[in-house]
Model the fold of this input.
Amino acid sequence: MAVFEKEFEDKNICLNIECCEDIKFNGWKQDINTIIVNLLDNSLFWIVEKDCTEREIFIVTNKTSSGFTIDYTDSGPGINNELLESGVIFEPEFTTKPHGTGLGLSIAGEAATRNGLTLIAVQREKGAHFVLSAE
Done:
């Protein structure tokens, strides 16, 4: 998250993190960083691109009986419901960014799978919503 600190400050984007202290996870730290950094990068791009009035990102961890969930939401323009339902956003080379590579969410999804996690995008009235879970 520190990688974006200056840019969040310059673009007036507030990052809110609520994290449970007692969550344990056995996996590749680099993969978790890859997932979160990709989500942050996408939020930053779209919040600025669409000149959103509200500029917030929330990362909330929750302990569950069999693992944990990380809810990631932003106040950006959100993701088209058809794209969510088809799952195309996680496919390599798919992008809606003018100069995107279409690799970010694909790599994030692979990183989640490699660690026995699930990364899904969830329909939300406003903004993007992703859930990373270990169940």
